[in-house]
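Field reference: sequence -> structure
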Amino acid sequence: MKKAILICLVFLSVGIMGYAQEEQYGDNQPYSSYWFVKELLQWSPESDKDAKFNISQVALANRFLNDSIDLDENANKIPGIIALMAPHTTNFHPSQGFSTVKQYAFPFWQYIDYFVQWGGSANEGIIVPPTAFWTDAAHKNGVKSIGTVFFPPNVYGGKEEWVYEFLVRNADGSFPVADKLIEVADTYNFDGWFINQETYDLVGEMGELMQQFIAYYRTQSNLKLVWYDAMIDDSRVIWQDELNNHNQMYFQKGDKNMSDVFFINFRYNEVNLEDSKKAARELGRSEWDLYAGIDVQSKSFKTPVKWDMLYNDGKPNNTSIGIYWSNATFDISETKTPEDVYINEQKFWNGGPSIETRFGSSKWLGFADYFEPRSVINELPFKTNFNYGLGRFYNDKGKTVSEKEWHNLSIQDVLPTWQFKVDSTKVKAAISFDESYEGGSSLYFEGISNADFPLYKTKLNLDQSLNLQVVTKTSGNINLQIYCQLSNGETLTFPLKKSSSWFTNSISIPKRKNILLSKIGLITKGEGKTFLGELSMYYKKEKKPTTSSFTVETFTKENSSELYIHFNEKSENVYHNMYFLNAKNEKVWLGKTTSQDYYISNIPVKNGKINLAVQSESFGGEKGKLIRKLINVSK
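Structure field:
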């Protein structure tokens, strides 16, 4: 991308730093994939021992904006956001999470439509699929997950030969690399590729060949394609900062849709964006398929942005928005603790304080006031424990079953639609990482006055009665009510019991024909503290899932072992909980996954045996039978 010096240096440096991390992982730790072109052409899921750990098994959820707008492929085009995130180095990225909370997790899925796992470097590899646990979290929220193809500028390690290898065409018109990109996405279950071609001094008709490559890719699959404004029609790399006749053939060529998203380089002015909108419409495309880039890599919400080019009359203007390096909320944190990073996230997405820049005082407007949040709560059952995807411990119904830190976005819950724009001088609303009912976090509310906290946007039919369960814990003189807004304008309120320990409130919402439940929120009255540990909804109790049978491969050293666990039954949208049974026959939580294969880095071995237990769990929260297995191991 433009400012390529900064970007390439970052990826060269993080690639080098990644080598220092190698020793902290087990000898058999599986890693996320990355390749150069020749390596990709030799890759197959059968020959790659780590491939099975890199497969997402979470389906892309259906999203909606409100009672009348579903966000399917045929919906009217609306402004959106694509977020490019670099959550880890390209190399040595564990396939299924970390044993620390000091890694980046993303909580504001409701405002983005595409997640791009940004990565790649001349030192490590230039083709980077999204890590499976990031795809799991994206799909759970209805967000499309995109991998990266990054051709760096020559001065920072890019080689023309990589572009030539990428664009090799067979005599029959097929492109071997395009076929491989499709195979990877289909195997790993993500949604498409971002192509960022910034290598210059190409010889021959590479621009025309790239267009043929894209056209072939589009005819061979339904995968998405994101194109970055760098390479132009005659193969040169000249950032246009707009859509025009030098680059529009990578967006739309005749009646051929070439890219779903066109990412406009960062140096645009108001006329650039107005002309881009006009050009898109003349091509028969929506201006909302154009995404004007904002580079926030170094300063996050302290970045000066000329918002008047992007917003007008309280809504997006001319184009959608592309955010480069939105995970800078983590990078600028001094502590890297989830509490500190989450404060940064709220400022970034909701709007932050005024900042002084060389342009004078600048207000960070954020995105929540300008983009209507998306939601996926349009069918039941639904359950959330407000699990952020990381924790300093793991609780099961309020009981601690692990005291170790963990990070795994595969088990991040769908977090509240609104997070949380309140008067902080009167009330506090946050995610607590010190208390949970299940998992590693909960919602925390503290106040000295009455407060209304909208939580979830829903689209649930009330043609039959609906059951709602809310698990809370309170202290002080505080009264709670859950409220439900209906599509006919009616609001139902239900009191929640005060309790100093976790208490499950069970509520039945009577059926109302042709009426929808549209919003759920919390009302607090009085002074005190509240933890919200679970919210679940269902029409009828789910059937308990059948816990999958499983096999175990062990890698043992002295009194501990690494494990590969394989679940024999392939299930979409089902969790598997894994436990070690200690000397007291108590469950010690080891991990939770949606994958058919899972890696455990360290488990104690006693007398050559491991006492293991597995329990499958539906996304609605119903748990199957606990299956125990005594594993005999040898060194």
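Note: DSSP finds nine helices and 36 strands in the chain.
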